[in-house]
Amino acid sequence: LKRRLPDLRLVDIDNAGDAIDIALIWKVPPGLERFGNLRAILSLGAGVDQLDLDTLPKNVPLARLKDDSLTACMIDYCRLAVLRYHRDFHLYERLSREGGPWRYELPKRTSERCVGILGLGELGGAVAGDLVSAGFQVAGWSRSRKEVAGVRSCIGPEGLEEIAAMSEILINLLPLTPQTENILNRQFFSKMRVGSYLINVGRGRHLAEDDLLWALDEGRLAGATLDVFRTEPLPAGHPFWGDRRILVTPHIAAAGNPETAADYVAENIRRALRGERLLNQVDVSRGY
Ligand code: NAP
Ligand code: GLV
What does pTM read for this prediction? Predict the structure, then answer.
């Protein structure tokens, strides 16, 4: 940031007196309300659910992080997780470890496989585009209808049922809000195709954990790749550890890169100082 904005004075909140223009935060620090002249709050996360939006100063615009490297990282993770199921690597990994037997699964074409994505925003939209390029059938669920080439756009409660019924691999990339909490639950899994797969890269609180274990036991789901959890780090002894149907990754699907993120943060600082609308400004009333 100093290289991009040489005149910027960067201070730690404890040494900030009571006058700062812009706050860069991950969680809401105690005492943020004392800065009466704040012009913007910039979240250093792509999601803002870690912030208690009700406690933020009113009328100060809030933006979340957008970073091309983070988006690219999310595309890689989702492509890898989808292809692992698509090409049965999860099965071959297990058979390799268990000493066989030799088992031959005829590969399907990508065009024969439907991947559903909950959330078609910054990240879900980019992942959808990548999977379309790889040849998959892709459907996405969002609040507003989308026109993304090759993506079937689903909305509303019927759209959610539709996407559950058509997806063989389902990726969750929704933001966590009161409307989306526990959306991956028994009722939703009951609508999914028998033997389908879940990839959760949204937030842990999207998933009703006991309902996932139920769906796996019932065979409704054949496996799950989970990057986010209700409690992180995932506690020792949690039933997800050691369950061979579940792949646990440590909230690593996508991380911001300091170099590329700094370009974006610097641009938002300039906009805030000019009194312009921020990039990726959060609609606090919607919660994302
Ligand atoms: P975004 O641009 O705000 O997109 C959110 C999408 O979800 C939009 O398409 C939105 O619909 C849809 N949506 C929100 N509420 C909905 C509802 N109630 N019903 C239907 N659709 C709804 O967010 P993003 O940048 O793509 O990020 C998504 C989430 O990914 C973040 O909030 C964060 O939790 C997670 N994330 C995870 C990692 C990781 O490493 N695991 C990294 C970064 C981010 P509209 O387009 O119609 O508004
Ligand atoms: C990570 O999960 C983020 O929201 O940036």
Answer: 0.96
